[in-house]
Amino acid sequence: MKQNKYDEAGFFAKYSAMPRSTGGLEAAGEWSTFRSLLPDLHGTRVLDLGCGFGWHCRYAREQQAESVVGIDLSENMLERARAMTDDPGIEYRRGAIEDIRFAAGEFDVVISSLAIHYVERFDLLCCEVQHCLRTGGSFVLSVEHPIYTALAAQDWHYGPDGAKLHWPLDHYHDEGPREARFLEDDVIKYHRNIATYLNTLITSGFTVTKLSELQPTPEMLEQNAAWHEELRRPMFLLLSAVRN
């Protein structure tokens, strides 16, 4: 299933008002960790899957990447990305992440930020990424954590007074689609457990080099009190892998 909620005017307007949409990478709490997983981008050819407004594409060029290709299914996203980009070294293309087809070894680095949990077949995607990466190339991705995606409600269990008592976890090994609510609309996300993410990468020809469940740092907690909730359950899973 290839969703394109972002080309619906109301949904896109709400997304555009989110802090990470207006403030860029520094407004994304997971950015510092994601950045730490990236290799040296100097002189590299980079592919960004689910590029959105192009924040990661522009960052890669700031780090002197040779070229960047950003892929997104939403024309609204790409229109905004192009308006924010004045760089011939970045090319934005419209298409679904699931449909990527590139030449063997065309890229040195493939990145994807909070998009792959919308993709049904992670195994097929990993095969395509492995194909288009050179040997030794890096695949760095972030997704919503499986503890967060296991139940479609994606919400706390509340007490009578409205206090957040705990984060419910059920059907963890029942992988597949979940109809969740995001920005007051229904979206389909695909739940996979941690073992599936890791083993799929390994069987697709990657060596997993680092994993993060994004434990908030003291600096994050000081800057935004809401991050204290992330000490109670992880919201994001970040992985870096190298093509064998």
Automatic annotation (TrEMBL):
<dbReference type="Pfam" id="PF08241">
    <property type="entry name" value="Methyltransf_11"/>
</dbReference>
<keyword id="KW-0489">Methyltransferase</keyword>
<keyword id="KW-0808">Transferase</keyword>
<feature type="domain" description="Methyltransferase type 11">
    <location>
        <begin position="47"/>
        <end position="141"/>
    </location>
</feature>
<dbReference type="GO" id="GO:0032259">
    <property type="term" value="P:methylation"/>
</dbReference>
<dbReference type="InterPro" id="IPR029063">
    <property type="entry name" value="SAM-dependent_MTases_sf"/>
</dbReference>
<keyword id="KW-0949">S-adenosyl-L-methionine</keyword>
<dbReference type="GO" id="GO:0008757">
    <property type="term" value="F:S-adenosylmethionine-dependent methyltransferase activity"/>
</dbReference>
<protein>
    <submittedName>
        <fullName>Type 11 methyltransferase</fullName>
    </submittedName>
</protein>
<dbReference type="InterPro" id="IPR013216">
    <property type="entry name" value="Methyltransf_11"/>
</dbReference>
